[in-house]
Every structure is written in structure tokens, then in C-alpha cells.
Specification:
The complex is a heterodimer of chains A (113) and B (110).
Chain A lengths: L2 E4 L3 E5 L4 E3 L1 E4 L5 E7 L5 E7 L5 E3 L5 E5 L4 E6 L8 E8 L7 E2 L3 E6 L1
Parallel strand pairs in A: 2-12
Antiparallel strand pairs in A: 1-4, 3-9, 5-6, 5-10, 7-8, 8-9, 10-11, 10-12
Chain B lengths: L3 E4 L2 E4 L5 E7 L5 E8 L3 E10 L2 E4 L7 E2 L9 E3 L8 E9 L2 E4 L3 E5 L1
Parallel strand pairs in B: 2-11
Antiparallel strand pairs in B: 1-3, 3-8, 4-5, 4-9, 5-6, 7-8, 9-10, 9-11
Classes of the chains: A mainly beta (113), B mainly beta (110).
Chain lengths: 113, 110
């Protein structure tokens, strides 16, 4: 069965510093991979997705993620964070279909001035 | 504006009192789904629907019912709520690999 592990439950970082949020998944077949962001008191919105093709995926708000098949990872990165990036981030995986999207437990990113 | 609308946004109820959380989307999406969000557990799928009159269980369906009589609506029904159903609930619709989420319904069962 699929599972998604987000290795850090909380990541504190100073403004303008780089950040990496880690995500590993377990699956023996081809997968689709997603990162969603949840701002306080809001629903989730899609940051980026990997379906096929280039392993480096660029998303909104300056975020990018790299799919590494050999390490079954899909880490999210941003070179310089802003206060407004403070939110909870969820990694999700699906094995070739969208009806069974499995989410990780989430990583709370706290950007400090 | 394209959106998924859930009601109520907040609800406090008592054990055993039936309730319905409504969900409506205006994007003509065929696929809709319900999730619950609990601290440290991320989002877990309750039920999903591939189209009108087609529904299926997700990972945590116990204690919930759904129906899909119209494409735009996908209500979540708790026939006899229990305290372990206290959670934050999200409805979502899907198109092109992207889930569009409602703003959530925070339910407390006393």
C-alpha cells in the first residue's frame, strides 16, 4: 500500500533563507506526486504536481520540487522564503489515478522576520 | 468565480444527532471527494464520487454516508455522530490532476 512520509512536522526558518520540505513515498509503480499548501483557516490549494516528464517541477509562489525515483522522494524547495509563506504544506501521491490520493501528515513552515 | 462551497463552516452538535454537511461546486467537475483532517494524520479520504450516482468508500468511511444525485452537489451525512468524528472536513472536486478544495467545515461532537 502507498504511504507518504513528510520527515519534518515543523520547519522554522528566517525570512529570505532557503527552505526544503522533505517528502518520501512508498510505491512500486509509477506515481503522480503533488504538493499542496494550506494557509490558516483556508482549504488546500495546489502548489505543483509531477505527472511525467522533467523531474524538476516549478510551481506557484517560487516553489519547485524534484522527483527522485531511485530515492522515492519529492522534496519541495524555495531559495528565499517570505513571511507570507508561513503555512502548512502537504505532500500527496497517487498511483496513476486521482481517486486514491494519499496525503502525508503535513509540515508546518514558520517563517520568522 | 470557480469554487467549492461547504456549509456549515462551523458546527457544534451532540452525540447521535444526525447532521449533513453540504458541498457544492460550480465547475462541472465529475469527480468529488470528502476528506477529514486531523492533527498529525494529514488528510484522509472518507468517500469519493466519480459521477452522478457513483460513489465509493475511501480510507475512513465508517460512520459516514454520501449521496450524489446531482453533479454539483455531494453532501456528507453523519447519521449518528460520535465524538471521534470531531474533525475538520474538506470537500474537493477534481479536474486535470488538480483538487479544488472548499474552505472546510469544523465539526465538534460533544
Amino acid at each position: 500500500a502507498q504511504s507518504v512520509t513528510q520527515l519534518d512536522s515543523q520547519v522554522p526558518v528566517f525570512e529570505e533563507a532557503p527552505v526544503e520540505l522533505r517528502c518520501n513515498y512508498s510505491s512500486s509503480v509509477s506515481v503522480y506526486l503533488f504538493w499542496y499548501v494550506q494557509y490558516p483557516n483556508q482549504g488546500l490549494q495546489l502548489l505543483l504536481k509531477y505527472l511525467s516528464g522533467s523531474t524538476l517541477v516549478k510551481g506557484i509562489n517560487g516553489f519547485e520540487a524534484e522527483f527522485n525515483k531511485s530515492q522515492t522522494s519529492f522534496h519541495l524547495r524555495k531559495p528565499s522564503v517570505h513571511i507570507s509563506d508561513t503555512a502548512e504544506y502537504f505532500c500527496a501521491v497517487s498511483e496513476g489515478g486521482y481517486n486514491k490520493l494519499i496525503f502525508g501528515a503535513g509540515t508546518r513552515l514558520a517563517v520568522h522576520p | 468565480e470557480a469554487q467549492v462551497t461547504q456549509n456549515p463552516r462551523y458546527l457544534i452538535t451532540v452525540t447521535g444527532k444526525k447532521l449533513t454537511v453540504t458541498c457544492s461546486q460550480n465547475m462541472n467537475h465529475e469527480y468529488m471527494s470528502w476528506y477529514r483532517q486531523d492533527p498529525g494524520l494529514g488528510l484522509r479520504q472518507i468517500y469519493y464520487s466519480m459521477n452522478v450516482e457513483v460513489t465509493d468508500k475511501g480510507d475512513v468511511p465508517e460512520g459516514y454516508k454520501v449521496s450524489r444525485k446531482e453533479k454539483r452537489n455531494f453532501p456528507l451525512i453523519l447519521e449518528s455522530p460520535s465524538p471521534n468524528q470531531t474533525s475538520l472536513y474538506f470537500c474537493a472536486s477534481l479536474r486535470g490532476g488538480e483538487l479544488f478544495f472548499g474552505e472546510g467545515s469544523r465539526l465538534t461532537v460533544l
